[in-house]
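Hello again,

I reread your note about wanting to compare the complex against the isolated chains. To keep things tidy I'm splitting this into two emails, and this first one only covers the full assembly. Below are the input lines as submitted, including protein chains and any nucleic acid or small-molecule components. They are followed by the predicted structure of everything together. The single-chain runs will come separately.
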Amino acid sequence: MAAVRTSSEIALNRVAIVSVLIATLIFLAPIYWIASTAFKPKELAITVPPTVLFQPEITPFIRLFTKRVQMQKAVDPQVYEAAPWWEKRIYDGGERVLKVGKDVQLSQYPNRFMNSLIVAIISTVLAVGMGTFTAYGFSRFKIAGEADLLFFILSTRMLPPVVVAIPMFLMYRLVGLNDSHIGLIILYVAFNLSFSVWLMKGFMDEIPKEYEEAALVDGYTRMQAFFKIVLPEAATGIAATAVFCFITAWNEYAFALIMTNRRAQTAPPFIPSQIGSGLPDWTTIAAGTFLFLLPVAIFTFLLRNHLLRGVTFGAIRK
Amino acid sequence: MAHIELKNITKKFGGHTALTSLNLEIADGEFFVLLGETGAGKTTTLRLIAGLEKPTEGQVLIDGVDVADWGAAERDVALVLQQYSLYPRYTVRENLEFPLKPKIRRLPDAEIKDRVDRAARTLRIEHLLDRKTDRLSGGEMQRVSIGRAIVRKPRVFLMDEPLSALDAKLREALRTELKNLQMQLGATFLFVTHDQIEAMSMGDKVGVLNHGRIVQTGTPQEIYNNPRDTYVASFVGSPPMNLIDGKLVNGRAVMAPLNFELPFSGGAKASAATDGRPLVFGIRPEDVYLESGAPVEARVHDVENHGVEKILTLRVGDTTLRATVPARTDVAIEQPVRFAWNPDKVVLFDKGSGVSLRHAG
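Full-complex prediction:
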């Protein structure tokens, strides 16, 4: 076929490009809304119609990270003058930063954010690690009742998680796992493991077993062959699985809301709890949400080279 | 270098029996070719020796020692496969170094470098050492995987159809190289193939495997001239041996459905016992010749010109047989010709069992 394109083909192509652009804009709009609100002065956040052009400021982020109280009367000008620039912004909003002695008291946000990171990272590492080993076993060895076991593993995902939330909560309270990092990690690993096993099994099946057999004959143990030969070959699959597990754990809301309230509370249930009573401070909430979006975006971006092949489940070869 | 012996090996995969009471002996320094069709059990045999599979019954002996409890790593064998035998993320040099670096027999760096360079020189792949393996041609890849085997000086080389994925020219070249390499190293080779030309041209000894059983073991000449049964006769040789049903009557071969007769000399002693018994006569195409005064008339059914010779398909009634004749022989299709055979070269097989009368004893 000649590569000459008819005018109707060109027209169709243009329609496609325009449609994709419109779709992209629609999908990006909420993210733009969150990001722009995070940098808006408080009073511009809820204007109708929305303000598009404004002087961006980072005051919402300062508010996000500090503990503050409303001031009854205006601030002493001398105190105001002596304050650092970021504290002045808080005074400007009619509030003051709480301190113990000279130390600024931080809000709970950094702590909740750290909880999210700890739980998501550890549960992802565990789920992907265990999933990789399990998948390797299923892929390479003859296991009695292999199909039944695999189905059983998959079946753990068939019940909607919310159905087990109450019994889980009662059990967790009984054994003292509620409001603990380890409890949430166990929950997320259990939740992600079946997915990880199934996904990794597909990738493992694609790696020719001849590679390891050659290594075995060359004098390596099964374990050494696994780490030297199989694991590098499985990197793509591991990356894809890790992204999926991380996103699931990072975004999980329902269980985090039920199982945690203070010590191990993660960001998803914490952020909406800050809406509080009275007039919600949308810019501070938007700042918290904006920062919350970043880790997944960064993680996915770092692994993007592995993902094209990974998310198509190996359908694209070489 | 080592002597390999398989004793009474049976291997089952679930309900499927891959090997049945297999006995095999490979002498030290021998180039042994295991020949058989796809699914005959060749690769299974090789994997049993390598330690990648365990026999259901029987023993594998290396230098007289039962290696049942030895893993693949301890057996110190080298394996060359048809494909997927190179590690894709490594360069050629890293691939060649890999077998020298396991914990159980890690060599000093100088020794590794020396061995890799020597192997690269032997196989003429020095210019490829720093290349990634996915940028090699098929022939280069196989050379590297042979290199990966020879750097180690293993007790035995196991090769699983290493040439099958290559094109014809390259296959021929590597065949010679491999044979030379084996003689140079004085190593024990077990070479698995379905290609009888490879078996005949490379093997010191050939074992023919059919449905998980060793049918015949011998030198290529023995296998070719004196096949143990009709399976070997029809599998080895290109074109294969002609197999024609018939009987011996008064020392003459009588082909049953057609009633053409040919002289038979080999079996003065056999003839008494075999007179009148249903037989299969085996004759190689090169032992069938055309002659104007020959006893049987046939028509030329087909002519294949191979340059140095022609392979004729002759038709007598509805039986066909092949004859290899010099290329200058002038024949046309459907032309009537007369032919005879070399009576000394005829092999008799029992019609029922297919076993050669000479082997049946």
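For quick reference: The first strand of chain A starts at residue 68 and ends at 70.

B.
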